[in-house]
Write a structure and sequence with these properties.
By secondary structure, the chain is mainly alpha-helical. It is about 70% helix and about 0% strand. The chain has 13 helices and no strands. Helix 1 packs antiparallel against helix 2, helix 3 packs antiparallel against helix 4 and helix 9 packs across helix 10. The radius of gyration is 26 Å and the shape is elongated.
């Protein structure tokens, strides 16, 4: 394994001692990369070695190699739970990345946020990448339901699947105001005689009627919700019961 003094030795070679002699950035970049691999179990130090390599590649104008070094630094920092350092490296990588591949970097950063339960920041990052469904899901995890609905409303009808349609209905119901939103039935447009879809549509419409007509019968509402939950995914169930709790306090 290398010695920490090696980092300083490599760095000192980059200082321009002679006006007409350029530092050997290519050699230094490789040495920093090799050092990061030697110290891969010391994630913070390995990450800083990768950042040093990225600076060398920047000086050489090698944007692809700079991007790779920045991403490797971010991954080392993430593994070492150096959250702020990881975010900084990812954000720097986004600035360096070619627009054609920047969505890949955005996605990796967003997933990093999700793994740390920073769902709102994940939503913002997905939204920056134009990944609206992923953004909506992250915002739902963060209970930022207004932002989730905003993302869904920016999608074309042809981009929505059954799960999306149900989520949009529940989000509209949570924010219901007939001056802002219209809810049309059936929620799931389907020409087949699928019993599950028929039941789902019936339960969604029953829940809407129960809400909009101001029924105070909690037993009826609870029964509808319990039957409906069978058809919902985890995020949708959480929204349904969150909405129910909020409605009781209004």
């Amino acid at each position: 394994m290398g010695d920490f003094s090696q980092y300083r030795a490599i760095h000192s070679k980059l200082k321009r001692r002679f006006p007409l002699r350029k530092p050997n950035y290519s050699q230094a970049s490789k040495q920093f990369t090799d050092l990061s691999q030697d110290f891969k179990d010391f994630e913070l130090f390995a990450g800083y070695c990768c950042l040093a390599s990225a600076r060398c590649e920047h000086s050489l104008g090698n944007s692809n190699m700079e991007l790779q070094a920045l991403l490797q630094a971010a991954r080392y920092f993430a593994k070492g739970e150096e959250i702020n350092a990881a975010i900084s490296a990812y954000r720097h990588a986004i600035l360096v990345a070619n627009p054609s591949i920047s969505s890949i970097v955005y996605t990796e950063l967003a997933r990093f946020f999700e793994s740390n339960k920073r769902f709102n920041e994940a939503g913002v990052t997905y939204e920056e990448a134009g990944l609206l469904k992923e953004a909506a899901n992250a915002y739902m995890d963060a209970h930022f339901y207004d932002k989730a609905l905003f993302c869904y409303r920016k999608l074309e009808k042809s981009q929505l699947n059954l799960d999306d349609e149900v989520s949009i209905f529940l989000l509209k119901l949570h924010h219901y105001d007939n001056r802002r939103f219209s809810i049309n039935f059936p929620i799931i447009q389907n020409d087949s005689e699928n019993d599950d879809i028929i039941s789902l549509n019936t339960l969604l419409e029953s829940l809407y009627c129960c809400e909009s007509e101001g029924h105070d019968n909690e037993e009826v509402k609870t029964e509808i919700m319990n039957r409906l939950s069978v058809y919902l995914n985890g995020r949708q169930k959480e929204l349904l019961y969150y909405h129910s709790d909020v409605s009781r306090t209004r």
